[in-house]
Sequence to fold (610 residues):
Amino acid sequence: MCGIVGYIGHQDCGEILLNGLRRLEYRGYDSAGIAINTPEGLRVSRAEGKLTNLERAYLAEPFNGSQGLGHTRWATHGGPTEINAHPHQAGRVVLAHNGIIENYSELKEELAKAGREFLSATDTEVAAHLIDHQFELGATDLHDAVRRALGRMEGSYALVVMDTQDPDCLVVARFASPMVLGKGQGESFAASDVPAVLEHTREFVFLEDGDTAVLRADSMQVFDDAGNEVERTSRHINWDPISAEKQGYKHFMLKEIFEQPARIVDTLRGRVNVESGDVDLAEVDIDAEWLAGARKLVFVACGTSYYAAMVGKYLIERVAKIPVEVDLASEFRYRYPVIDEHTLCVAISQSGETADTLAAMRLAREHGAKAMAICNVIESTIARESDGVLYTHAGPEIGVASTKAFTTQLAAVSMLAVWLGRRRETIDADTGRVLLEELRGVPTAMEEMLVDHAIYEGIAHQFANAHSFLFLGRGVVYPIALEGALKLKEISYIHAEGYASGEMKHGPIALIDEEMPVVVVAPKNIVYEKTLSNVQEVLARDGRVISIVTEGDTHMPEISDVVIEMPDVGEFVQPMVASVAVQLLAYHIADFKGTDVDQPRNLAKSVTVE
Ligand code: M6R
Fold:
């Protein structure tokens, strides 16, 4: 949600900024802009819509310099127009901002009284004026002006600011919105996320809430909330910049679907020990005895991560016999949850920056719970604020529709189930071995699912004009039906609803007729026979059935229009393997329709506002 890139150094930065913004496209945006302090003075280029529009505008009248900033904006205050696009200028101050300044109208009124005029409808332009105004009030330099202005601002922000009268520095600030600093050779970077500048540096400094920083070509000073200069640890990031490229795939989403077997291997590596039937989660850094004695586990998450949490409930209750609640983070925050010091709260988030998930986790901690994060982004806010992190090793996920992040989250909750089961002695080493053997077989099973796409292309041909899809699942694959429906609506814009198969007759059955494709996730497991009966009910209403079944199954295919087979894997890992089928189904339908698969309309990759 919004992306920032800032540069100060020895090179012309036009290309650096545009490439950086390109790498942040996955975050979602609807306008973009860059500002560069050139030898002839400040030049700004902004455009509505996609980055190609900005590139066209910039290349029509190119400019360059070695101090600049760029921004992709996802509209909150004011529509996605050129005038509202960042960067914004006020006097000598130019800035780009992510987040929301909650008291902006009060500040705007005050600044208007002081003679300030506003061109846009944004809260960001108010911030630019507020900072510039500080020079009139006696600020000594840009850092001082920014710090004084921050003292007046309420809300969340990641800011990169430059002073047209000081070509040698950028000032950065962060509060509840992500911002990383990159250290290069004779150059410094600021960005909303690591991939933006990964081709230039691997050394990153992660700011904490309340921090400000002064970046120069050859130095980087960080200050805490109170204005004291502090050391923030620098981290070397190993991510391969190439893994953030499409590598010949038509879309990032397709590439990320194909990457899943390898990313699952990465996520299990060093943790799963099949021989001992156990999982090593030493890195989580929460006292093992405490964890084993926890009385309740509460998952908080949003969107796809919420469905991973739902799978977690099925697996953990079955294996570790601990009560598990699953909450949408946005609901948890306002429902007076019963949490105490014997509760383990597990926040699941790919980005580690989702505002609702972060707030839910904080709330649980306030009530005395221990918080664990299942997270993909190292040093993200959720990862840093939790008591322990189980990192998924999905690598950078660029497609807005989550795929490999989801299945690696499933790998993480599966490991957590076995880990808790062994510590709580609800399973022995033999059972642990069986479950972990199943887990170890997942990458191979996924590879098999990825070989032939003809079936999905055929479905796309046949069903892409449908107005609505119903996805059904039961037991451990019920969340996969929900995820399948979400994937389809996100990228193809076809309405889709996910339902528990057994609930269908309590309402959605009224929707079924010969126009309605019904996708049934029905591998062989303890509820298979029940699902079969549910599908008979669909058939009796002339519904068109697309079933996802265990290879060799003969019953479900008899009553299905189209059959997608998945390898015969244990129930414990069926959600992971079946996920590939619903992802490919959504992908091929969207591709057939020609939608913007990687950046679907209205969506942001990282939802950092409530
Ligand atoms: O980064 P997070 O996992 O916290 O994000 C949560 C949701 O915003 C995310 O899963 C969203 O639903 C995706 N677009 C799903 O494809």
About this structure: The mean pLDDT is 93. The two ends are 12 Å apart (CA to CA). The first strand starts at residue 3 and ends at 8.
